[in-house]
Amino acid sequence: MKKGTEEEKLEQEIQPEAQANAEEQKTEAPETEKPVDDVAALKEQIQKLEAEKAEMKDQFLRKAADFDNFRKRLLRDKEDAVSFANTSLLTDLIDVLDDFERAEEAAKKSKDFDTLANGVDLIEKRLATLLEKKWGLTKYVPLNEAFDPEKHEALMMTESPDVKEATVAEVFQNGYILHDRVIRHAKVKVSMPAKNN
Closest Cα to residue 154, out of 175, 140, 182? Predict the structure, then answer.
């Protein structure tokens, strides 16, 4: 009987240990499977991220190339605009050159100076009208106007008792205004009021 009780006792002691070992093995089995699943999932995620990275890099390179092409096209368009900006003006001036050639041919045939002078005068008027009406270029002759350093460049100065303020006495070269902006100052001789001694 003693022997049976000892065996029972021993069995009772071993049974909880066996159950504990069985439970540990149950919990260990999923744990060993779980890292394998995690590694596979991580590898899959890495592959997805690498594919996404490659796609984004490709998109970036394409956008960079598109931008570079756009920049080059803008530069080329700007150079063309600068190179050909005066095409319309030059086309108008070619017509005036044609008029000069016709006047020269007519003068050679007729040998008449008055006819040549009249032809050149007509061409000058046509050119001035064209530049003023189509291009906004206006000639100004400031004779007897008050001297204005914004419009006039004084080449000479003389004193005169006839003037009360600085006045343009003589014009050596006419000035030109393009749309309200002076593009060439008139070169003038200025009469200054006489100094009282």
Answer: 175
Helix axes 87-110, 113-135, angle to 10 degrees: 170
* Contact by Cβ (8 Å): 162, 191: yes
Give the CA-trace dihedral at 24, 29, 35, 37, to 10 degrees. Answer: -150
d(CA 73, CA 171): 48
Long-range contacts of 26-32 (CB under 8 A, 24+ apart): none
Q: Around 37, how many Cα atoms within 13 Å sit in the side-chain half-sphere? A: 6
In the structure encoding, which two tokens stand for residue 40, read together? 């596979």
Per-residue pLDDT of 46-68, as tens digits, reads 999 999 999 999 999 999 999 99
Q: What is the pLDDT of residue 23?
A: 61
Q: Is the dihedral of CA 21, 23, 26, 28 positive or negative?
A: negative
In this structure, whether the domain defined by 137-197 belongs to CATH 2.30.22.10 is answered with yes
Cβ atoms 153, 171 nearer than 8 A? no
Q: Which pLDDT score is estimated for 155? A: 94
Where do the structural domains in the chain lie, given as residue ranges? 1-84, 86-135, 137-197
pLDDT surpasses 70 at 3: no
